[in-house]
Write a structure and sequence with these properties.
Alpha-Beta Plaits, single chain, two-stranded antiparallel ribbon, about 25% helix, alpha+beta
Length: about 90
């Protein structure tokens, strides 16, 4: 079953490193863990009306968290770094 574009691209990642990468026309998003690079490329192009050159993905494991007697993990998620063609930019931050 194909997913909608807004189900694939969840939100932009707002960190110092992501902000610095915008100078190279590379934007960072949290994406659905089951999404592949082709789906991410199509979703970003559909949502923002831009041309994507390259997509890099990184699965992020949950970190171990402990508070007194409770032990758990943060959730797993997937990060995608999307490089746009030079004539396109995004204003998401």
């Amino acid at each position: 079953m194909p997913k909608e574009a807004h189900q694939i691209v969840i939100r932009p990642v707002v960190t110092e490193k992501a902000y610095k990468m915008q100078a190279n026309n590379t934007y960072t998003f949290e994406v659905a863990p089951s999404a592949n690079k082709a789906e991410i490329k199509d979703a970003v192009e559909a949502l923002f009306d831009v041309k994507v050159v390259e997509v890099r993905t990184i699965p992020k494991r949950g970190k171990l968290r402990r508070k007194r007697w409770k032990v758990g993990r943060t959730r797993r998620w997937k990060k995608a770094m999307v490089k746009l063609s030079p004539e396109h930019t995004l204003d998401i931050m």
